[in-house]
Write a structure and sequence with these properties.
By secondary structure, the chain is an alpha/beta fold. The protein has helices at residues 30-39, 61-74, 84-87, 116-132, 152-158, 171-184, 191-200, 205-222, 228-235; strands at 50-54, 79-83, 103-107, 135-140, 162-165. It is 43% helix and 11% strand. β2, α3 (84-87) and β3 (103-107) form a beta-alpha-beta unit. This is DnaA regulatory inactivator Hda. It comes from Halopseudomonas pachastrellae. Residues 98-164 form the Chromosomal replication initiator protein DnaA ATPAse domain. Residues 171-233 form the Hda lid domain.
């Protein structure tokens, strides 16, 4: 066991501090949130060694994986988060010994789909994790059978465990996410202002969070609450 923090690779890979279960607004994904929380709980009765989450961009896949790492680390567990889109060119040797962690989170599996060296390494890693009682939390843009994996046994094993599809939020859900994130920053975001941001800004969750970051900084700088005129001026809408 670690001293209550996730392992970090010496490659600049870090967990976002704000990526916690408490800051994830589930909307239609309440069941997925509950399953992920249970999977990250050391004493839970989850029998499967793999939990596979898939969904389109902006559904919170990365958030849930990082939140699971934070949650396990908070109780002294050993967690590792690997964003495969950033690490693919480093080669699958990165996976050596990963079966020793309590929870391994592999994000953006699509980045290595179709690469024989990676797929074979992942297949053997899955088997080692299963033998040693570890847990594997995976996220990708598609279900295991639809991801373009060339190794049938790997696709089969990833589908053995729990597989959940994350659903995108509607506008009402996005509005609630903005209000939740604003409250965690100490900002008061009214329904009217949240709706205005949604109607004028980009609609992707990443762009919405970036807009909130900009407004947070501007609010601190000017000591001004978030109003529609203030948002309009700061964002140039």
């Amino acid at each position: 066991m670690s001293a209550g923090r996730p392992i970090q690779l010496p490659l600049g890979i870090k967990l976002r501090d704000e990526a916690t279960f408490a800051s994830y607004y589930p909307g239609p994904n309440a069941g997925v949130l509950a399953a992920t929380q249970a999977f990250a709980e050391p004493q839970s009765s989850v029998e499967e060694c793999c939990l596979y989450l898939w969904g389109s961009e902006g559904t919170g896949r990365t958030h849930l994986l990082q939140a699971a790492c934070h949650a396990l680390a908070d109780v002294g567990g050993l967690a590792m988060y690997l964003p495969l889109d950033e690490l693919a060119d480093e080669g699958p040797l990165l996976l050596e010994g990963m079966e020793s962690v309590d929870l391994l989170c592999l994000d953006k599996l699509e980045a290595v789909a179709g690469r024989p060296d990676w797929e074979e390494a992942l297949f053997h890693l899955y088997n080692r994790l299963r033998e040693q009682g570890g847990r594997l939390l995976v996220a990708a843009v598609a279900a295991p059978r639809a991801l373009g994996l060339q190794l049938p046994d790997l696709a089969s094993r990833l589908g053995w465990g729990l597989v959940f599809q994350l659903q995108p939020l509607d506008d009402a859900g996005k509005q609630e996410v903005l209000k939740l994130r604003a409250a965690q920053r100490g900002l008061q975001l009214t329904d009217d202002v949240a709706r205005y941001i949604l109607s004028r800004g980009a609609r992707g969750m990443g762009e919405l969070f970036a807009a909130l970051e900009t407004l947070d900084q501007a609010s601190l700088r000017d000591q001004h609450r978030l109003t529609i005129p203030f948002v309009k001026r700061e964002m140039g809408w």
